[in-house]
Design brief:
Oligomer: single chain
Mean pLDDT: 97
Number of helices: 7
Number of strands: 11
Order of helices and strands: EEEHEHEHHHEEEHEHEE
Strand order of the largest sheet: 6-7-5-4-8-9-11-10
Helix content: 25-40%
Low-confidence stretches: none
């Protein structure tokens, strides 16, 4: 499948898959989307408390890097696990401009470190941030009540509906601690029904630029 690096409307880059007409991040702004969906409507709920995060779709590492920057800013302890079946290659990573666009040149080595660390091993990225990258298909996830927060950032329902199934959301529900939270850019009715069917309480929120709505789901106690 042909892949190309494109610039999104906020100036940040992403990877575009021509055959699917699908991108790793929103064409309206990769950084804007990550900050709105995962930080503003996810991580911010935990104030400065220690938090364990599962990311579904590690991809370019944008969400992980922005979360690291938040951990530095708030001095928040974060244990981050990113799941990815098809890791992005080194050439593509070099084409991402996130460090410059986030004005985080002092942490350029951290972004590089995130991509150079071994897969399936826990790595101490900083004194406050640990990263485990798991090379794994989503249907192979079998964690139980480990995570406080899930960033659900899989490819869209239009191209991979199987990643938004009841079976996958049951695994997400099982992975969360009681009162855990899942956030995603998605807002399709079929996705909401799948979430509710496994026990989530789902709320609809304003979406990031270019998207009207998004979902946030809570695991019932």
């Amino acid at each position: 499948m042909k892949r190309e690096i494109i610039k999104t409307l906020d100036g940040s880059t992403t990877i575009h898959l021509e055959e699917w007409n699908e991108s790793y991040h929103s064409k309206h702004g990769a950084i804007q989307e990550a900050k709105h969906v995962f930080i503003k409507n996810g991580l911010s709920l935990f104030d400065s408390n220690p938090v364990s995060i599962l990311e579904i779709g590690f991809g370019t590492g944008l969400n992980a890097f922005i979360t690291f920057l938040e951990s530095e800013h708030k001095q928040q302890q974060i244990d981050y696990v990113g799941v990815e079946a098809y890791p992005v290659n080194a050439e593509e990573i070099l084409g991402m401009n996130y460090v410059a666009e986030l004005e985080a040149l002092e942490f350029e080595n951290i972004f590089e470190k995130m991509h150079k660390t071994e897969w399936n091993e826990k790595n101490e990225i900083s004194s406050k941030f640990s990263l485990t990258k798991r090379k794994q298909f989503f249907d192979e996830i079998n964690d139980f009540e480990i995570f406080d927060l899930i960033y659900f950032d899989a490819f869209g329902y239009r191209v991979q509906p199987e990643l938004w199934s009841t079976e996958i959301f049951q695994k997400m529900y099982n992975s969360l601690k009681p009162s855990g939270v899942l956030v995603t850019y998605a807002a399709r009715g079929v996705v909401k029904r799948s979430m509710i069917s496994v026990g989530f309480t789902v709320e609809k929120l304003a979406g990031p630029p270019g998207k009207r709505e998004m979902f946030r789901a809570f695991k019932k106690v």
